[in-house]
Design a protein that fits this description.
Radius of gyration: 14 Å
InterPro entries: bHLH_dom, E-box_TF_Regulators, HLH_DNA-bd_sf
Shape: globular
Strand content: under 5%
Low-confidence stretches: none
Organism: Pristionchus fissidentatus
Number of strands: 0
Mean pLDDT: 83
GO molecular function: DNA-binding transcription factor activity, RNA polymerase II-specific; protein dimerization activity; RNA polymerase II transcription regulatory region sequence-specific DNA binding
Distance between the termini: 44 Å
Protein name: BHLH domain-containing protein
Order of helices and strands: HHHH
Amino acid sequence: MASINDAFLDLRSHIPTFPYEKRLSKIDTLNLAIAYINMLRDIIKSPHDPEVTIKRAVRMAKSGVHGAPAWSTSDLMSRLAWIDWDKLGMRSIQQ
């Protein structure tokens, strides 16, 4: 059981979290990790710049367009808003 808990601690350190969050539950951790992995997969598979890919998905989700990536409507989008995009050399996805 300790090794499972250690694995969740490690997983939590690799997904975006809010600065004020204490600790995500195991199910929330898994759901967020799935959304994050799917977003990263879509970025890698896309022929477009990562910034373009993310912004397009955000616009689709906000507009209610059918076919928007599942990760773009998840809790992940609000967490991505906390990222300091300037440090990554990108403009905010909210723009």
